[in-house]
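Known limitations

Files may contain more than one protein. Parsers should not assume a single record per file. Below, a two-record file is shown to illustrate correct handling: read the sequence, read the token line, then continue until end of file.
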Amino acid sequence: MENNQKTSSVGEEKKSPAVELATELYKNITMGSDAVVHLLPKVKDNGMKTSMTAAMCYYEKTAGKVKDFLTAHGAEAKEEPLMTRMASRMGIAMNTAMDATSSHVAQMLIEGSTMAITEATRLCHRFEGQKGCEEMLAVAKDLSEFEQSHIEKLKAFL
């Protein structure tokens, strides 16, 4: 067992701060990717499809980087629980059943990106200055900046 991991009272190993940060980032990133995957078929505007496809590429590349980090630290990359993902997909389906216009989809994506920025910022504040977190903090900051630029692109479709 590594020095930065201790056994808890329930027999599970306590994650290092860097692994905990990476785990939360991975969940955040894969939720964004999953949302884009489920919204993309609803979009008719080619410009919006291009923007969403670029976002999906970013998410996949970044998720791969975080997954590699977790693997290198002996941890498993886990997505949000199935029920959370299903609830998100049902929300997307209900929202787009009522209104699948580019404007509404852009609004949904902007709201999702805003939540991702909030979560990434919260994680940065929580793990700032903790040993071993530098690489994943840089990923969190990059994610936040990416989401902000994605929001700016999506505003054109409102």
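...continuing to the second record:
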Amino acid sequence: MELSDRAKSIPPSITLAVGAQVKELKAAGKKVIAFGAGEPDFNTPEPIVQAAIDALRSGVTRYMPSSGTPEAREAIAHKLQTENNIECSQANISINAGAKMSINLALMAILDFGKNQEVVVPTPAWVSYKPMIELAGGKMVEVPTEVFSGFKCTPEELEAKITPNTKAIMLNTPSNPCGTMYTPSELQAIAKMLERHPEVYVLSDEIYERLIYSDVQHLSLGSIPEIAHQVITINGLSKAFAMTGWRMGYACAPEPVAKAMNTLQSQINTSITSFCYATIPVALGLHEEVEAMRQVFAKRAKLMFALIQQWPNTECVEPAGAFYAFPKISHYFGRTSPAGREITDSVSFTSALLEETGVAVVPGDDFGGCGPEHVRLSFACSEEQITEGVHKICEWLEQF
């Protein structure tokens, strides 16, 4: 009996694999300092939890419409109108089981198998983009970036990759794994370029928009009138609201795309969990709680960057958003670790680091572009953990 080519061709998520390995080691009684998961260490704010409990107790436990409740869609549309300056209505909204599902459905709505359609993606990029594009029948075309450019590409570099087969461009700002973000002027320049390609969609992944630690303002590409009809805005509640396990994401798309996404969802998982819809208006109305968490992340970002700056023979861009640092560690390739392990790439680097120090980071191989020269560290953890773990890495590197 054979598996499908699709099942055999898609690798497991490296970030989830690192998380699973850490859990196994901890279960075996070993101390591990983990910088792998992109998951806030805060509890979900109480008003959100209470909204779900109230919905449960009032009997909201049955099938729901695939497009979501009118109240939830209206809350999302209102948020996008007032905070992101995106002109939209309920008809443009699709509510899904996490932003990952929103991206999957959006890609399925615009890509076809057998047509050699391409999605242009600046890399390094989130590990799931490439598999999701391929599962939807497309091909990912990379626009490589480097640490010296802040992992950002120019409009000219993006446009050079556009061909008659290009169906979409995908941008993620602030970025996972790089922690950097495009300025409004840089995004305006990209939008100007995209005016010359009105047939190309833009998937704008803005899941980290509320987690910004610099004076750079977030700009939604969907707010730029000249390209608004091309933009599919992806967002969700997982990161800024500490709701990763709730699996709640959404998209704002041109009405035909949003309708197609909801139709596809109706045949895949029907909808998100019924009693979760009630939490969306509550969550989107929380500002003090979200800002308090952002301020903590901002302190952690500065702390982790300052400590990484002490590492010998490495380079790192200061995180401007999200909760990741992405240092370049390729200087150590071809060397031998303090315990005698051969370091050939970022995978062997992270494996030796975990075995010899008990510190877990994510190898950069699956992020594409220059990713194989880097590792990713998440600072969605305590300052004590950051201080101890990053110091341990520094001491380990000094012994090479």
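Parsers that stop after the first record will miss the second one. For reference, the second record is described as follows. The chain has two domains: 5-43+288-397, 63-284.
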